[in-house]
TrEMBL record:
Belongs to the CAPAB/TerDEXZ family. Residues 1-168 form the TerD domain. It comes from Streptomyces yunnanensis. Residues 174-220 are annotated as: Disordered. InterPro entries: Stress/Tellurium_Resist, Tellurite_resistance_TerA, TerD. It holds the Pfam family TerD. This is TerD domain-containing protein. It comes from the Bacteria. Coiled coil: none annotated. Residues 177-220 have a biased composition (Pro residues).
Amino acid sequence: MSMLKGGNVPIPAPAVRVELGWQPAPGAPDVDASALLLVSGRVRDDADFVFYNQPAHASGAVRHEGKRPAGGTSTDTLRVDLAAVEPAVDTVVLAASADGGSFGAVPGLYVRVLDAGSGAELARFDSRDASTETAFVLGELYRRQGGWKFRAVGQGYATGLAGLATDFGISVADGPAPAPQPPVAPPIAPPPAAPAPPLPTGQPVASIPPPPGQAAPAPAPAPVRLTKVTLTKDAPAVSLTKQGGTSGAMRVNLNWSAGGAGKRLGKKFGRKAMEALGARGALLPPSGDLDLDLCALYELTDGTAGVVHPLAQAFGDLHAPPYIQLDRDDRTGAVATGENLTINLDHQARFRRILIFVTIYSGARSFEGLDATVTLRPQHGAPVEFTLDACTVPATVCALALITHTGGELVVQREARYLVPAPGVSPQRTVDHAYGWGLNWSPASK
């Protein structure tokens, strides 16, 4: 049962998942969840803001888990480990922001608090009176008499996420992050000049060193940047160069759900169908869980080409060619951060093209009904995200994104292209053929 605005309920669980949900509709804006950790109504600093550009609090108590479409509903989820929240923090504000419109155009907006262990619903608040607001405080978790409670708030802001964050003490930057400047050679030193006369007594100097034994004050931290890029069919590409994202590490994350559609598919198709997936050499996990693999085909400017994937332990290397590395093989989807590829953009001049793709290793025979979100998070510049469209063909491989050097710029192109392997052909060879990589393939397993 949905709570009324201003109502509150006890939260007995030591950890909760806060699910922000809505119904996608034509012309409706995208929605993002965020959290602010407060001490007496204010953040202590900008690190107390958890959102898509800053997905984890330093304490580890609050984490942004990301978006997942599920049938006719989309969700964006936060995990709050209440037992780990620092004692000084008395409130965790649960907020929503609309990207590209107002909440009056977002149907079915709600927030649910779920027991992170059992999944039981502990509280729910449905927002029914939104109009021109572009940000909302939907609820808050707060301490009371040694425990935690949830309060339904429903306070709107017409100034978006920036206005909401500023209201709680966050420093918000204007515009995208500036592109880092490439190093330049030091200028040729001029001939030594004659010594300058001493400064007159009392004349100010450019800087005064701190007294002996006292450290210089730390520079002020950079303000929080709220920019992000969402790729769609109508706007499928973005230049990382223009976003300033051409150096440092870029993490590519695949966040997928195994608890819903994955298990339903396993039951629908049965054990024999799942075992048939192993006919190409794959080993089916004993539990029969859905196992998706995040992979990358790469081609460097010197003609070197290959693949990064979990098969045959081909996890890549971040500091040597191919400058791409897979961090883990998540076989169940239980890891909140999913699987991640990291691309070293300090060597981006060596890349000719990189194709990010995902395969079904076991647990289902197609992507039909599966929910997944892809996020590319460069160290500099705005994050790039998109969701996969509904799959209507028996595909076991999906090309996600193509990264190329185009016109002197590093460009990310949304692919979201489902491919159907021919009988006896592996998903990897299928995506190779579709994009003309021309690699020689041999059977491999985990």
